[in-house]
Amino acid sequence: MFDKVLIANRGEIAMRVNRACHEMGIKTVAIHSTADANAMHVRMADESVCVGPPPARDSYLNIPAIVTACEVTGAQAVHPGYGFLSENARFAEIVGEHGIVFIGPKPDHIRLMGDKIEAKKAVKRLGIPVVPGSDGGVTNDDDAKRIAAAIGYPVLVKAAAGGGGRGMKVARSESELSLALATARSEAKAAFGDDSVYLEKYLQLPRHIEVQVLADNQGKVIHLGERDCSLQRRHQKVWEEAGSPALNAEARDKIGAVVTNALTKLGYLGVGTIEFLYENGEFYFIEMNTRLQVEHPVTEMITGIDLVREQVRVAHGGSIGFDQSDVTFSGHAIECRINAENPLTFRPSPGLIKDFHVPGGLGVRVDSAAYSGYKIPPYYDSLIGKLIVHGRNRNECMMRLRRSLSEFVIDGVETTIPLFQSLVTEPDIVNGDYSIHWLENFLKRKVG
Ligand code: ADP
Fold first, then answer.
1. pLDDT-based confidence at residue 283 (cuts at 50, 70, 90)
2. Relative to the CA of 436, which ligand 1 atom is closest?
3. For a substitution probing ligand 1, which of 201, 286, 438 has the most ligand atoms within 8 Å of its CB?
4. What does each C-alpha distance from 78 to 8, 18, 191, 270, 352 come to in angstroms?
5. Label partner for 4 (CA 20 to 30 A): which of 28, 188, 221, 432?
6. pLDDT tier at 413, thresholds 50, 70, 90
7. What spacing in Å lies between the alpha carbon of 381 and ligand 1's midpoint?
8. Is 436 close to ligand 1, i.e. is its CB under 6 Å away?
9. Between β-strands 47-52 and 27-33, what pairing exists: parallel, antiparallel or unpaired?
10. Structural domain boundaries of the chain?
């Protein structure tokens, strides 16, 4: 096993990786910007290296500084967490060229799935159902109009390089299409430096259901069931559950088998998530994330499998020590993303956390790097932590979630806790009856 791993991230996910490494007897190196010198992820690691000034492009995205940090500390592997460099194929390659193991998939697979047009073509060939749409990019408005008429309105214009819901625009009729194309292209150009876009049928009331996979380099691919991430605002996940209230064991096994077959053919390595929209009993692929996801803990809670430990093991060349038939799903888990934001407008609220008290008790997990007296810097995302609750069934999980939310104290900054407190009493949420549009409609009713 590795002796030392460098964690190329910050905040709760750096803490999460640090925990898994320490349990495995692996020493850790934290990196940090000057803004994070006193951060908890730095204090918990065995060593730390400052990699630059506060802006992420100069620190957490600074590839030469991070590779140098590996070399000076003797770290044999890098865990990228999520965000930052986690889906940067060039980073994975450079790390490899320096004789350091990238704890993640092969660079070619990161690159393939990072281009959503190519990814869609590839998974379709591997037998995964996709959303009807343009078979590739659309470069001119006339082609787009012809394709949109064939798939039927409404259509969604999406960026090939997309992520975080950016570069996505709905056109409800032909008259809206030119503007949607232009807006999506310019948003994509600004966010990703690439203005290629493609078209998809805009599904009306789907759920977002994603399948977690784990693969070793001996050809074994296992799925760990699904997560339902339908509760979203501006295409960003807010609340995630495992399993999905909309799936039964038969549907889960069926889509799990489709996904594991496809990734076996691809020769995938590490953890990954295949994201689908699910409507009227049908799955439609939207994208694959070639990294650990924010919401991975709900899967851990119902399977008992430590996804980060497995990531490290398979990156080291180890085989998955269990079979698909050994994976069992026990109970239900829900995660709430607690952000430093206004609970209704989602305006960021960085600043000093004066008082921080986390809930506890049976089935309650809080993944966070915050503490009383911690000052949330304005440079990075606004995630303070994740509240993850497990119960023997969904009803028990909801009871425990209500109780945990009432115990959680974060004073000094605005947080999304009040939003979750109102969600847990909504009949649709209690019944698990919601689509990807439910939360936006709820917020419209609340905020007007
Ligand atoms: P990103 O990479 O920006 O996160 P995704 O392709 O994963 O983009 O889509 C994010 C969210 O946007 C989905 O979870 C869903 O809510 C919505 N979405 C994406 N594609 C469609 C579609 N064809 N129809 C309806 N909603 C969609």
1. very high
2. 16
3. 286
4. 7, 12, 26, 14, 31
5. 221
6. very high
7. 20
8. yes
9. parallel
10. 4-103, 132-201, 207-447
What is the CATH architecture of 207-447?
Answer: 2-Layer Sandwich (3.30)
Question: Cis link prior to 193 (omega < 30° from 0)?
Answer: no
CA of 242 to the centre of ligand 1 (A): 19
Regarding the beta carbon of 203 and ligand 1, being less than 6 Å apart is answered yes
Q: pLDDT tens digits for 313-350?
A: 999 999 999 999 999 999 999 999 999 999 998 999 99
Q: What pTM was computed for the model?
A: 0.96
Give the closest residue to 212 by CA, choosing from 223, 199, 202, 220: 223
Q: What is the pLDDT of residues 63-77, one digit of tens each?
A: 999 999 999 999 999
The pLDDT of 111-125, averaged and rounded, is 96
Is residue 131 in contact with ligand 1, taking CB distance under 6 Å?
A: yes
- pLDDT interval class at 162 (50, 70, 90): confident
Q: What's the token pair of residue 377?
A: 């810097």
Judge whether 402 counts as a catalytic residue: no
Catalytic residue among 10, 207, 227, 291: 291
Q: Which CATH architecture has domain 4-103?
A: 3-Layer(aba) Sandwich (3.40)
Top CATH class of 132-201 equals alpha beta
Residues written for the chain: 448
